[in-house]
Amino acid sequence: MIYFDSDYMAGAHPEVLKRLVETNTEQTVGYGCDDYTKRAVELIREACGLPEARVQLLVGGTQTNATLIDALLARHEGVLAAETGHIAVHEAGAVEASGHKVLTLPSHDGKVAAEEVEHYIEEFYRDETYEHMVAPGMLYISQPTEYGTTYSKAELEALAAVCRKAEIPLYIDGARLGYALAAEGNDLSLKELAALADVFYIGGTKVGALFGEAVVVRDPKRLPHLFPLVKQHGALLAKGRLLGLQFEALFTNGLYEKIGQKAVAQALRIREAFRAKGYEVVVPSPTNQQFFRLPNEVIDRLKQEASFELWGPRGATETVVRFVTGWSTTDEDVDQLIAML
Amino acid sequence: MIYFDSDYMAGAHPEVLKRLVETNTEQTVGYGCDDYTKRAVELIREACGLPEARVQLLVGGTQTNATLIDALLARHEGVLAAETGHIAVHEAGAVEASGHKVLTLPSHDGKVAAEEVEHYIEEFYRDETYEHMVAPGMLYISQPTEYGTTYSKAELEALAAVCRKAEIPLYIDGARLGYALAAEGNDLSLKELAALADVFYIGGTKVGALFGEAVVVRDPKRLPHLFPLVKQHGALLAKGRLLGLQFEALFTNGLYEKIGQKAVAQALRIREAFRAKGYEVVVPSPTNQQFFRLPNEVIDRLKQEASFELWGPRGATETVVRFVTGWSTTDEDVDQLIAML
Amino acid sequence: MIYFDSDYMAGAHPEVLKRLVETNTEQTVGYGCDDYTKRAVELIREACGLPEARVQLLVGGTQTNATLIDALLARHEGVLAAETGHIAVHEAGAVEASGHKVLTLPSHDGKVAAEEVEHYIEEFYRDETYEHMVAPGMLYISQPTEYGTTYSKAELEALAAVCRKAEIPLYIDGARLGYALAAEGNDLSLKELAALADVFYIGGTKVGALFGEAVVVRDPKRLPHLFPLVKQHGALLAKGRLLGLQFEALFTNGLYEKIGQKAVAQALRIREAFRAKGYEVVVPSPTNQQFFRLPNEVIDRLKQEASFELWGPRGATETVVRFVTGWSTTDEDVDQLIAML
Amino acid sequence: MIYFDSDYMAGAHPEVLKRLVETNTEQTVGYGCDDYTKRAVELIREACGLPEARVQLLVGGTQTNATLIDALLARHEGVLAAETGHIAVHEAGAVEASGHKVLTLPSHDGKVAAEEVEHYIEEFYRDETYEHMVAPGMLYISQPTEYGTTYSKAELEALAAVCRKAEIPLYIDGARLGYALAAEGNDLSLKELAALADVFYIGGTKVGALFGEAVVVRDPKRLPHLFPLVKQHGALLAKGRLLGLQFEALFTNGLYEKIGQKAVAQALRIREAFRAKGYEVVVPSPTNQQFFRLPNEVIDRLKQEASFELWGPRGATETVVRFVTGWSTTDEDVDQLIAML
């Protein structure tokens, strides 16, 4: 069986695992105060071009979003997000459980449009009853989005400009950031993204780590009390060095980039193979997630040797499916899939 | 340098790590639906003598307490706990962040007394204004406690009887449960504890795992919607098998018991050595945490070769210190420490 | 100046105020345990045909919605509501502040469609990832809606059937219930509504009281701990009899009905007058709120002698406006307005 | 029957009620934007000597505490309070429901000691693990306290100095503030209190109003978004002028002071009468609440003609009782009580 269900089905990239193994018996202080974490923080700051940034390592994506959104918002504020955003749909109400509303915007293949964000904020404050409503207190976007699409440099600049004008922070969920950086046609470097976002995170769980997300706060003064909030959200890992070691490995010798590049290249091969066979590519995704509309009989046939997800409920004659590549996808897996088409 | 700071300073017990390494490239479904997790669940059910129990694996202790307490309490209820309890002191308000009050009881070396719990509940309902106050909705205890002490079988039976009478669940924080099971003079088996607690967790982080806590819900009908609450609390690990694999290893060939036994034996050797030298043993702990009152000059001398924590602020001439053993403590470490006294 | 801004601009109906004045110096116990409140509860039970119902008097609408929704939902659940619903828009995030998501449905002039509610719930549970999403735990509707429209008996029966099938409570925000009961073409009595709703409230603030909302819980066993939750939400009035006295007055000699009838009759006169002048009636409202699209110069002219609200931002040449009648609207006010057209 | 149960058993002082009656049919805008509220705000600012203060009128005490504490605290902070404080005991967990812990201090007849507050804060930051604990983010005191005792000017200055040094706001619950201002031996004027507190409220419910509490925020910049938080907490009264009218009346011609003075004088007469009969005065209260230890047979005899509360459970032979006076207590009531002793 070959697997294209998701990018979190295997363990860690061997380089990452190696570090955990070779340091296993060392004794270090907990909670991320160890030297491995410090080194990871330095590597991430360097990669982002932000020597002063606060870098906080957390375990998982929902946890990271819930903690940081809670940290960034005042009590009367909510978070703007695409109606398809992970926080709006698939986090079991974690944002609301911290007391904040998700204010939804239309999704354009998973993305929000700068002019629509701006319009929302303008209309909000033009409404005389706005103090009876939840104020837009930050913008959440994901790069790449839940549909594999990406913001261009110009699009992100436009969003950042809207946020700056409205004096609200721009937060980027980078659970799959490695695949956006390696996306077909990408014109947005990590440094450029880091300069535009107020807070973002670099996803580890889906890009080669066992687990782990690295939050980058451009201006540490924005979140002076992040540590106790991380603890309060149950997001503080006792053996914090496990996060430090993994991110140290990912940001050494360009591993994070390599993982992204290989997986995206594989995904694009898959996309071209499906397209060549005449199947509809449902979303113009330049990253490691690809969505196709397939006849049900093709799905049934492929399922005999390949594992992948239906995207939404099965249709009468055809259904949208998702194929995902990751660090553990081999070129042979892709060859085999293509041969089956 | 030899380390006695805590039981979460090293990585995982080699048997645990081995499983993570040898399965690393396997592809499994996420979120704890994989076969390794299923096997771990079966092993834990068996060890607890609870074939029908719901077992849920989570990442860390504060997260586990916050999630389960939130799941167990109604909105108008709070959780009874010793004033020294971890949830009352060292979880940065995680319980309150979910909307619940911690109702504190006197601590007797970290333990609560059954008669005091009963008295609290009786007085509460005798007060005519009780509907203006937070109702005691569950009892939280830790076994062993934050001070290393343990409840005897009779004490736990008394607490369980009080809870049953008051119709509130008894919850046991077993972050260090392995050390209680191996405690000097312990007369309470895992099966007995599992039969008395309504919900408890078996700590992995401090007993040989990289991370992980296994929650056991005796009657699954008590918490029919635990999964979405776990997700909502940001406590759902994407690569859930990492938890399954670790608990599978810990509950294979009695590893969990062995880790506890070795560490406790070492701690007791340390205790006797200090006692023999005439130092005060501050808390009658039969587990892997030991507390001594030492002259400051002794502390300073020991600190040159041994790492350990002050317990509270440094005193003028003497200070209470804590020594902790764990899976990675070697007998040579202990020998060396004793030789230094 | 004549006022049509809202139905909460004047004090209390004289019959209501009279009761407060004539009982002012009496001494009664607090928190709603007094005899006036007991009598009001009995009168409301009788009017609803629910002799066993739990009736709880609260102060205001947002408070009532937030408290009851919090009381009705489990932690993993959210509340279904029209995207135009008061809780979704104009309560400053009070529902989210208690930790719950508002799950929005399309609005049809302020109403939700039974088939769309049913579809939402069905699709939710058909989604394999539903435990990662917020479960629909109750349905919130308002009668009349924020746009003055009303559910017919058949429509409410359909919604109740959907809720019963899904085993979720149906909650009705009756902030302006008096005007729905008196609505043009209304075929739904208070008793019928009370039999279909699981929980609803009878609005006092907007229907002749100084303040006050009467919550009716058909089956008291559904909310056994409502009192402490009311207190916890800061919704418990110390001098609770003020609520009892007001609802006693409103439910004596059909006052609540009379207030509704008079105001609706006035609103319909206003509607017909605008319609006769050729202005667009924007929403087909049969109640005390009427919405018209007027040329800006007409608005400016009317504003010289009449006070009313723009509904949304002022347009370039024409704007939607709202006229509202209430207990204090006199027939002369309406005559004067019509004369101005 | 004569009533000494509490100070919220009757309606409003006649001067207050009169204003509600004579303005009843006027039409004003809602939510506290009306002219009566503006005038009340000006009167309160003047009485406090704080022409720039933000004054916000709310309905009840628990609501006020919950809303303001939530507004003042950051997410990682808790509120320091006496263990007997209203927020710690009798608000059904309202503070925790907003996510904040109440950090308790010893009570000295209901009061906290400045040196103990200072010590708590110093010890907190001396603890190396303080970021794992809930930070003291404000100090809550009540004036007078729940036991009728009051802070002297020197005591309040000391508390204010501790708070200023720790850079946390001092919040005063003035639910019965009128009685503290009139207390026997009081040396603290409203202006002086207003200059020392960062935020406090002037209680109306227990001092002559039907309901209502006036929050005073010395520096409005401290709480720039109070309005939406008030709404979010369900604390915004639609017919806001009802609050304005009442506080306007209370702060016209010294009514607030007069109510306090009369009730305190009556309470002191009662105290002296009990003392003269040899009964123990349990708390040295100089305000309108008095606590005595009485033989049960005396209680039973008095109860035949007087209504008052037991303070805690009935003892075997004697019990502590509370007598409270208020605006509606007549001198004849007091004469009658004294004659019964």
Walk me through what this model shows.
- 4 copies of one chain form a homotetramer.
- The first copy, chain A, contains 14 helices and 13 strands.
- Chain A starts with a strand and ends with a helix.
- Helices cover 41% and strands 18% of the residues of chain A.
- In chain A, helix 2 runs parallel beside helix 11.
- With 341 residues, chain A is of the alpha/beta class.
- Chain A has helices at residues 14-22, 35-48, 61-72, 86-89, 94-97, 114-126, 153-166, 177-181, 190-196, 226-232, 241-250, 255-276, 296-303, 331-340; strands spanning 2-3, 54-58, 77-82, 102-105, 135-142, 170-174, 199-203, 213-217, 280-281, 289-295, 306-307, 309-310, 318-324.
- The first copy, chain A, has a 7-stranded mixed β-sheet with strand order 2-8-7-6-5-3-4, sandwiched between helices. In chain A, strands 9-10-13-12 form a 4-stranded antiparallel β-sheet. A two-stranded parallel ribbon of chain A has the order 1-11.
- Chains in contact: A-B, A-C, A-D, B-C, B-D, C-D.
- Chains C and D meet through helix 1, helix 3 and helix 10 of C and helix 1, helix 3 and helix 10 of D.
